[in-house]
Amino acid sequence: MTDRQKERREWLSAIASKYALDVESEVPASSDAGFRSYFRVADQNGKTFIVMDAPPAHEDVRPFIRVTSLFEKAALTVPHIYEQNPEQGFLLLSDLGRKTYLDVLNEDNARELMTEAIDALVRWQSISEPGVLPEYDRATLTRELNLFPEWYIAKHRNKTLDERQSALLKVCFERILQNNLSQAKVFVHRDYMPRNLMVVPEGGPGILDYQDALYGPVSYDIASLLRDAFISWGETFVIDMTIRYWEKARQACIPVPQDFGVFWKDVEWMGLQRHLKILGIFARLNYRDNKSKYLADTPRFINYVRQTAHRYDELKALLFLVDQIEDSVPQYGYTF
């Protein structure tokens, strides 16, 4: 047993009597791309809880606690926090079950489940106000974009951009940033995707992994939901669900553009920023953190980048760069 395991076991033992926990029942529940890990523990009647273990040297549970209260304010389903120890990095949470949207989504239920997710997103954004969450500002957006050349191009593709290529990438990044920063701001989950949405008996979806929430571009979460890391949809479905979100957001007085064409471009360009970031993150997870499983999904994101860049003359330079980085010239289509 490691020192961290001993600390977690001691903390659980100290609160066990309050919840009739069977500390010996603890089993791994899941882990994420960061340093957090999760364990499932049962009480003497079989009811289960989730233990979040976030080593303080790497993670801070206080943002999770703060954002949980915001989701609860919006009357959305998130893990209830029964016990907390921010100093040690432990939380005892309600268990939202074992089935994520990613586990169950198929052609028969996709429209219903994604509509449910859109309704929850609108409720989340409806309570937005400035000064509550940190700003998703230019510095943060730029830092995320720079993960792409640093980790994906340099580390994963082992390429060094020449002066002209670097200049082209800089211009494309600036165009993306100008679009992103011109958008109205709301609360942003930042990983609002099927893997972080749970199937629950009522009041769904259950929402997880929101500790990095910021106040930023209104198109971010819908782009995240429909251009996912682990599942892709045909473009007709993506446009249809984006329109459904846009209509509901307007009805809820969320500050989306009045023209859907303008909003669609915003979603695509916001998605592009996210895709480039994720390519860098997935490469970093492999080469720095020894988490290799994420690299298998990088082709999906290269495809997202190519298809968006192919649509806009202002981004053709990015398309050219990606083709050079990937050593290929693909056939471009509009479904994926």
Summarize the structure.
Mean pLDDT is 94; it is low at 332-336. The chain has helices spanning 3-19, 62-73, 101-104, 110-126, 138-145, 147-156, 163-182, 220-226, 235-251, 260-287, 298-311, 316-326, and strands spanning 21-31, 37-43, 48-53, 81-85, 90-94, 185-188, 197-198, 206-207, 214-217.
Describe this protein's structure.
- The protein has helices at 3-19, 62-73, 101-104, 110-126, 138-145, 147-156, 163-182, 220-226, 235-251, 260-287, 298-311, 316-326, and strands at 21-31, 37-43, 48-53, 81-85, 90-94, 185-188, 197-198, 206-207, 214-217.
- It is α+β, with helices and mostly antiparallel strands and 336 residues long.
- Helix 8 (220-226) crosses helix 10.
- The termini are far apart.
What is the straight-line distance between the termini? 46 Å
> Portion of residues in helices?
40-55%
What is the percentage of strand-forming residues? 5-15%
**How do the helices and strands follow one another from N- to C-terminus?**
HEEEHEEHHHHHEEEEHHHHH
Taken from the alpha-carbon principal axes, the silhouette is globular
Radius of gyration: 21 Å
Strand order, largest beta sheet: 1-2-3-5-4
Please tally the helical runs, counting DSSP H or I stretches of 4 or more residues: 12
| Overall pLDDT metric | 94
Structural class determined from secondary elements: alpha+beta
Sketch the major β-sheet. 5 strands, antiparallel
How many strand units? 9
Low-confidence stretches: 332-336
